[in-house]
Write a structure and sequence with these properties.
By secondary structure, the protein is α+β, with helices and mostly antiparallel strands. The radius of gyration is 17 Å and the shape is globular. The longest helix has 18 residues. The relative contact order is 0.17. Helix content is about 30%, strand content about 20%. Strands 1-2-3-5-4 form a 5-stranded antiparallel β-sheet, covered by helices on one side. It is built from 3 helices and 5 strands, in the order αβββαββα. The structure holds adenosine monophosphate and zinc ion (ZN).
Length: about 140
């Protein structure tokens, strides 16, 4: 796709530090290296993010993640695997990608957490029902 930086990486128009490639998937080092070894796994098909991904493309991309992650994690057994969908969720490049972020310890510069809330089991049941109704092929 024109003007997509990751499509340009796939075509070779822009250089990248490749760690894995096959006919459908490419993995390369993230230029910002949140931690040493920070890698992105992308489908070669241009798709905006996981919300717009077909099951077939998801299967293709995610099926490669464990073996690439195992290669990336040679230095450490801990790793966060992340994906951002849409700007509010932190997506800045609109070609789907999965972040593999090796973790080295509490002081490795990665800070993640969720606010915790007291569970409201009735509300959880209603919410689960309303989401379940929306699940389609
Ligand atoms: P996200 O914020 O989830 O959309 O992540 C986009 C990631 O792409 C960021 O972590 C950037 O550092 C990374 N990135 C942007 N341009 C390049 C590039 N030319 N080569 C490698 N990584 C890139
Ligand atoms: Zn693209």
């Amino acid at each position: 796709m024109d003007n997509c930086i990751f499509c340009k990486i796939i075509s070779g128009e822009i250089p990248s530090s490749k760690v894995y490639e096959d006919d459908k998937v490419l993995a390369f080092l993230d230029i910002s290296q949140a931690t040493k070894g920070h890698t992105l796994v992308i489908p070669k098909e241009h798709v905006r993010n996981i919300l717009e991904m077909s099951a077939e493309t998801a299967e293709t991309v995610f099926s490669r993640v464990p073996k690439i992650a195992r290669a990336v994690q040679k230095a450490t057994r801990a790793m966060n695997i992340l994906n951002n969908n849409e700007e509010v969720a932190g997506q800045t490049v609109f070609h789907a990608h999965i972040h593999l972020v090796p973790r080295y310890g509490a002081d490795d510069g990665i800070h993640m957490g969720f606010d915790e809330h007291e569970p409201d089991f009735a509300a959880l049941a209603d919410l689960a029902d309303s989401i379940a109704k929306e699940v389609t092929e």
